[in-house]
Structure formats: structure tokens, C-alpha cells
Amino acid sequence: MRVDFYHLTQSSAEDAVAQIGQKALAQGQRMLVVAEGRDRLQRFGEALWAREGAFLANGMAGGVHDARQPVLLSETVEPANGAQILALADGQWRESEGFARVLFFFDGSVIESARLRWRDVKAREGIECRYNKQEGGRWIEAG
């Protein structure tokens, strides 16, 4: 499993998830976006639909078509759409088994807990960790 830490310094989590999601969907992968609160999830959904130059279809978990959604928005880590990628989009870590890749988005308000999580995850066997920072609107791997 690979865990990518995305330190948000220049864009919102909604914009960052849409940017990374666009690349994942272009590769034919499915994604589960997890955040607390239905209103917050709706903002992620709107950002995915409004992505310039892309049509990022998504739906809220709990519907009859969950399995068909390329991007499923949920408050829990339950990939009803068969997602290989999990986006933890609200700065809160959740344990996640069975995903090929976990994307952990966080900003300065939770930097200390993100650092602790980095050390914890990096110490686990079989997990590759990457730290990504924003530079000029792009993501740069920093460690």
C-alpha cells in the first residue's frame, strides 16, 4: 500500500481532491472520498463536477447506484464502488485496509497530528509513504 500525504498550503481540500481525482479517473481507477459531514461532502461533489476540462462523475454514498460511481463520497471508509484509492479529505486519519493507495489531505490546522501520523504510518511494514507539497499550483514530492 502507498500513502500520500498532501499538505494543503495554496488550495482548498476540495480543489486538491478534484485535481488528484482527475488523474486517478483518467487511469481508470475509482476513488472513495471520505470526510465528516454531508455538507462538506457536497462541496467535494460540486468541486468534482466543476473541474475545468474534465467531467468527474460522483455520487453520495447510500444510493442505489453506489457501485457504479467512479467517485463515491462518504462519511465512512466503505468502498461500495470498489475503489482502489481512498482520499481522506478532511485532515482526519481513518484506518484503511484493502486500498492500493491512500491520499491524506491536511492543512496547517492539523499539522502536528499529521506529523505524528506520518511517523506512525512510515514505521509500518509494507507501506510506502510520500509527502507532497504545493508549489505554484502543482504538487511536488518532497520526501
Automatic annotation (TrEMBL):
Keywords: Nucleotidyltransferase, Transferase. One of its GO terms (molecular function) is DNA-directed DNA polymerase activity. This is DNA polymerase III subunit chi. InterPro entries: DNA_pol3_chi (IPR007459), PolIII_chi_sf (IPR036768). It is an enzyme of class 2 (transferase). Its EC number is 2.7.7.7. Pfam families: DNA_pol3_chi (PF04364). The keyword Secreted does not apply.
